[in-house]
Amino acid sequence: MGGVLTAGVLTITVALGPAVADPVAMPSSASEAVQRLVELSRQSEQLNEQALNAEADLDAKLAVQRDADTVLAAKRNVLDTARDEVRKFQPVIDRTAIATYQGAKTNRMFAVLTSNSPQQLLDQMSVLDVMTTQTTDQLKQFKKATDAASAAETAARAASDAAHDAAAKSERMRSDLLDKQRELGTATTQVIEAWSGLSAKDKAAWAGSPFPAGFDRDSLLKDLVPGSGTSALAAAMTRIGDPYVWGATGPNQFDCSGLVQWAFKQVGKSVPRTSSQQANFGTPVPKDELLPGDIVFFYPEISHVGIYAGNGLMVHASTFGVPVAVAPISTTPYHSARRY
What we know:
Layout: E1 2-7, E2 10-15, H1 30-101, H2 108-114, H3 118-196, H4 200-207, H5 217-223, H6 228-237, H7 256-265, H8 275-278, E3 283-284, E4 295-298, E5 304-310, E6 313-316, E7 325-328, E8 334-339
Antiparallel strand pairs: 1-2, 3-8, 4-5, 4-8, 5-6, 6-7
């Protein structure tokens, strides 16, 4: 894909592919070295956000797995209880079945035939009625218990399947995270090597100035209307000059989304960790209605973020070798904005 990356006072347009640049090819000039740094830095930013997203996905999958395991344990407890209930009635059912098989005489005709007197007949029939009622009740309770056990077994089996599925998904996300972390490690190593190869003059040009010409931070902060967004902007302004570090969330070093998360945390607002997640938080804002404190996102896949500072400017953690600074939003491919 194509992109524009501003690092300090350097603005260079580069064509980016999905793969990390060849670590063997060495730049033949200072300008080529800077362009190589731009390319590698952009790729490392993308991989950093991807690794953070993979980590967040893993956390979500692990939470699902824990919930599934909890449900499974509960279903198994229900199943054990149901099986205990079945076992409680089993001896009665076994005795009834054996008696029936052996031809036990428990009907009223048998009572008539075997009784020696009317009173004995009444007594036998009364006993038979009680036995029949008890047996019928016990059979009903046994059926209820077996039905409950069958339902519990089905539920436990479904919970077990869900827990195994959740565990498999967690393992896949864990593998994806490890892959992203390895890719990020390779990319960041190349960025540092490319940066180390620059001259002191080129490094200073790469880092640039913390503020654009004519920018007055004190005037901006004085004119801000109190609110969570503007208060977060004011908090971010206190980190100007802090270094960019992949995966850092403060308080003295940041990546792009880490700075946004930290700034809003200072005003009591919890926002997601990565730029792509942050792009789903808050309320959408049209570009022509941006206000200081709004969150601005960049690149088609949303892999960079900053806090709008008004007048077409933002405060952001740009890339390796460039401290947290105020820069124009026009030098980075704009995507969208949200108001928190």
